Amino acid sequence: MTTRSAATAANSAVVQVRPANAGEVDRIARVVLNASVDTVDSAWLVDDRPDRLAMFAIVWPAVVDYALAHGRVDVAIDAPGVVVGAAIWLPSAVRDLDAERQLLARAGRYADRFRRYQDLLIAQQQTVPTGWQLITVAVQHGRRSQGVGSALLRYRHVVLDRYGLPAYVAAAAASLRNLARRHGYQPASDAVLLPDGGPALWPMARQPAPPGTEPGTDAGPHPLPDDRTDAPHPGHEPTPGSRQRAWLAAPRPSRGGRL
């Protein structure tokens, strides 16, 4: 084992991965916000960073709350009990059309970019089998390159493999593409360039592994996942969660009325 692999395994060993609970929404949202605020696709969506921070500080708690109700949220906890990483999953066939419309209505001058981004994601989903979509995998800055993201993916992949379900992610950041590739994701179609000089979105899909196959290639423990994953129901349109309702109803964050 190389020095880096040994260090990764040692650090991964002190991380527990488990399903999130409703009392952790704000902690999870902070981890996701800090990990995502400066990604290339986030910067394309909202090019002004203070506006982006203000909007995402409201959006991510709503997304986490929604996924707890209609998908799966897994967290990585370190020895002191701190949330150091999270993965958010939704059934790829699930759409809440009313919530999408309201989000676009409240996105202010960024609505057109949110709409284009949303349309591209929906179009890309048509290229992969119905399964579960990885919305994001986020790791606290001080715990990156220590196997936390890999532990989160392995945790959910065990369940998806058990049910024979594929997984899908639209990856813009090179770090996410590399992580996904190490865990069996392959290009599902050609990359799509976001307009106006935006980054490329790479649709990647993972087919369920055969029984007895290790659910990943990185060193580290394979924690026992929860067994609550249900097959997705195409066409199902769930009701927004409580925080999503709050986001849709809340006054729009603004700096000088621009957002």
Structure description:
The chain is of the alpha+beta class and 259 residues long. Helix content is 42%, strand content 17%. It has a single domain, classed as Gcn5-related N-acetyltransferase (GNAT) (Aminopeptidase, 3-Layer(aba) Sandwich). Strand 7 and strand 8 form a beta hairpin. The radius of gyration is 18 Å and the shape is globular. The protein has nine helices and eight strands. Strands 1, 2, 3, 4, 5, 6, 7 and 8 form an eight-stranded mixed β-sheet that branches. This is N-acetyltransferase domain-containing protein. It comes from Phytohabitans flavus. InterPro entries: Acyl_CoA_acyltransferase.
Count of helical regions: 9
* CATH fold-type name: Aminopeptidase
Using only CA atoms, what is the Rg? 18 Å
What is the count of distinct domains?
1
Q: Based on CA inertia axes, which overall geometry fits?
A: globular
SSE order, one letter for each helix or strand: HEHHHEEHHEHEHEEEH
- What would the average pLDDT be, to the nearest integer? 76
**Name of the level-1 CATH class:** Alpha Beta
Q: Summarize the biggest pleated sheet.
A: 8 strands, mixed
What percentage of amino acids are in beta strands? 15-25%
Organism: Phytohabitans flavus
Protein name: N-acetyltransferase domain-containing protein
